[in-house]
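User: Sequence in, structure out. Go.
Assistant: Echoing your sequence, followed by the structure tokens.
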Amino acid sequence: QGLKPIVSTESPALIFGTTTKLASDLPATDSFLGQNKVPDLQKLFQKADGLPVHLKRGVPDKLLYRTTMALTIGGTIYCLVALYMASQPRNQ
């Protein structure tokens, strides 16, 4: 008689009726329909103009950088004020 397998050796039924496609099954022309912008961005970011990389794209980068710095400084000041207020005894 021997031992019987506990786990079924049959493959389970499909839960969803669709099968998956492998990336190798897709045609190469349909995989990406946009224009490759990487070479243009590489030229922009590797240009020796003395600007740091996080400011190379102009006004949007400067605005984002200055907003981040303002929020950081404002948050630091707020934390210091809250710490000062927490360190003072309450008046009865």
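User: And one key feature?
Assistant: The CA atoms of residues 11 and 17 lie 15 Å apart.
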